[in-house]
Amino acid sequence: MAVYTEVTDEELSAFIAQYDVGQLLSYKGIAEGVENSNFLVHTEKAYFILTLYEKRVNRDDLPFFLNLMQHLAAKGLSCPTPVVMKTGATLGELAGRPAAMVTFLEGMWVKRPKPVHCSGLGGGLAALHVAGADFAMTRRNSLSVASWRPLFSQSAARADEVKPGLRATIEQALDQLEADWPQDLPGGVIHADLFPDNVFFLGDRLSGLIDFYFACTDSFAYDLVICLNAWCFEPDQSFNVTKAQALLDAYQKVRPLEPAEIAALPVLARGAALRFLLTRLHDWLSVPEGALVTPKDPLEYLKKLQFHQDVDTVSAYGLAL
Amino acid sequence: MAVYTEVTDEELSAFIAQYDVGQLLSYKGIAEGVENSNFLVHTEKAYFILTLYEKRVNRDDLPFFLNLMQHLAAKGLSCPTPVVMKTGATLGELAGRPAAMVTFLEGMWVKRPKPVHCSGLGGGLAALHVAGADFAMTRRNSLSVASWRPLFSQSAARADEVKPGLRATIEQALDQLEADWPQDLPGGVIHADLFPDNVFFLGDRLSGLIDFYFACTDSFAYDLVICLNAWCFEPDQSFNVTKAQALLDAYQKVRPLEPAEIAALPVLARGAALRFLLTRLHDWLSVPEGALVTPKDPLEYLKKLQFHQDVDTVSAYGLAL
After folding, report:
1. Residue B108 forms beta bridges with which residues?
2. What's the domain count of chain A?
3. N or C, which terminus of chain B has less Cβ within 10 Å?
4. Which residues form the Aminoglycoside phosphotransferase domain (chains A, B) (predicted)?
5. In chain A, which residues have pLDDT < 70?
């Protein structure tokens, strides 16, 4: 649920008047997203999503995110496009918060992705990587390997409360990943959070990608294994190789992987699993007693980490050797 | 915030297929309403509001509410209109809950109503009363005078925790109101909950009335004083007679009050104040420790009750004697 900031109609009308979109006709707070306040806004011209950026988003990162969406949309990628104010700016202020309005994207996210959706995702992800190749700005991935040990230090002492032995398991994985983490793989802009709720479909057809607020500069193959973890495991934690193959094949039709990228997939997949295990573990241990929001289960990502630790060759992912 | 029930895209697509509205293009959970789950749905034909009725709404009342909205819309009142399924029904089922889809109404509610909005409200309320006059169904007002003592009995023992002396004040008011409550005033369908968040405007012009889920059969003047209490007091609890006059004048331009209704306004206004004082007191004392939702302050309505207890003549409301 996400409307953290209440906005009055006068404030909103004044904000909307900065754009060339006609008069405000209606707006509704949307129960989506967990970081920001979102409103679906209808003006005389069209429907838009208005986002008020709350504290967890770093204000200095907003130009990267907004310019990236503009760049990708201009390259033909289907994603929300920031609407430009009469002044030429895309970032404004509303109710004391940074705020931006983006175009409304039709489509729905798929709660139970099938192989056909993994295929759509693969094509969309590769298109994103290709479209972002000449984007001039960069943003360090603040949730990559260098950040994992400091992040874990905040949870280490209590990790075994969640599962006995978890602390040692994570420390071992950290040691290995810090030693083996691949450098110099092909990279550029990655989405870094392309879970099913950020990918819209109309029927079986991908209609667009949303929520670029974790986007950063990192290796493309890392983005791909984040998707592999988020889309290709079943609710019982079994790995669905048909979905993995659909994802990887569709990706490679648009952007073929280099041999070094393919070789790195298992270690990258372990890293991607550890990254979400660590953030979920941190959130799990930080939730106050009696909170209404149930944090996501960190152990789901422990099982994914262990799956990839057992992978010998990329044939486990459905790739030919 | 109101999305209590999660709906999958498959379930929703199947539900939408019962209507002649084209394919589903998108849907968003809306952070509005506190009783039901609401979604803004876009199909190939239009935008709609889809409501899933949660436990607090009595399923047997739904035909009254839906038929009423249809009746009022057919009479030209601007309100959400239930969309009719191919079977001719307006009430369906989705995710195990009764569900209905209504037309989307443009407009926004006004956080700080001005006299011009009270005037718009008065005209709209009278139009509602006139349009509902020949509606065939009836629904008893389950929150009228007969219900107040049983409702208060659940809070009486703890009332003085909220304010010392509150129990005695309420008991006195109850005794008086039960003795003096007017019978046989002109009546019919009333909205019974026409607070600012249920009245939409586009600029200064009323664009429609929403949320008919407290509608019932009762005296028209009682509906009017519910509005008087909800719209004509300032945040500091002072009574704004200009707003009251605007409300009453605009109402009477469409439906002139009879002398008996005018004479009854002070006692009805005390009753309307007590009704919301009692439900808010009940909610205030029922909220679990640490809940995220802040209940509305019951004492706001104690002050309104006391204002009306001091009213000698209806000139206090801006009416000529």
Report:
1. B201
2. 2
3. C
4. 27-257
5. 1-3, 33-34, 289-293
* Cβ proximity of A177 and A145 under 8 Å: yes
What residues contact A45, with CB distance under 8 A and at least 6 apart?
Answer: A20, A21, A22
Task: Please check whether residues B148 and B90 belong to one and the same domain.
Answer: no
Residues 38-57 of chain B with CB under 8 A from chain A are 40, 42, 47
Q: Positive or negative CA dihedral for A215, A217, A220, A221? A: negative
CA dist., res. A228 & res. A249, Å (int) = 12
Query: For an interface test with B, which of A1, A6, A43 has the most B Cβ atoms less than 10 Å from its Cβ?
Result: A1
Averaged in consecutive runs of 10 residues, what is the pLDDT profile of chain B (321 residues)? Answer: 73 95 94 81 96 89 97 97 96 95 95 96 98 96 96 96 96 97 97 97 95 96 98 96 97 98 97 97 83 80 97 90 71
Q: What is the pLDDT of residues B271-308, one digit of tens each?
A: 999 999 999 999 999 877 666 567 889 999 999 999 99
Say how far apart CA A148 and CA B14 lie, in whole Å: 44
Alpha carbon distance A270, A169 (integer Å): 12
Q: Are residues A75 and A144 in the same domain?
A: no
* Chain B: residue whose CA lies nearest to A105: B26
Report helix, strand or coil for A104: coil
DSSP for B146-187, please give it: HHHHHHHHTTGGGHHHHSTTHHHHHHHHHHHHHHH---S-SE
Q: Could you tell me if residue A2 is inside a domain?
A: no
Paired strand residues for A43: A24
pLDDT at position B1 is 39
The answer to whether B28 contacts A40, with C-beta atoms less than 8 Å apart, is yes
Residue B4 is assigned to a structural domain of this protein: no
pLDDT value, residue A120? 98
Q: Is residue B51 part of a domain?
A: yes
Q: With the CA atoms of B92, B94, B99 and B102 taken in that order, what torsion angle do they form, in degrees rounded to the nearest 10?
A: -90
3-class secondary structure, B248: helix
Pairing of strands B97-103, B199-202: unpaired
Is the same domain home to A297 and A203? yes
* Residue B31: predicted pLDDT: 79
Q: B108 and A26 in contact by Cβ < 8 A? A: yes
| Shared domain check, B133 and B68 | no
Would residue A108 count as lying in a domain? no
Q: Looking at the structure, do residues B182 and B69 belong to the same domain, yes or no?
A: no
Residues of B in contact with A24 (CB under 8 A): 108
Residues of B in contact with A31 (CB under 8 A): 1-3, 28-31
A133 and A83 within one domain: no
The CATH number linked to B210 is: 3.90.1200.10
A278, A170 in Cβ contact below 8 A?
yes
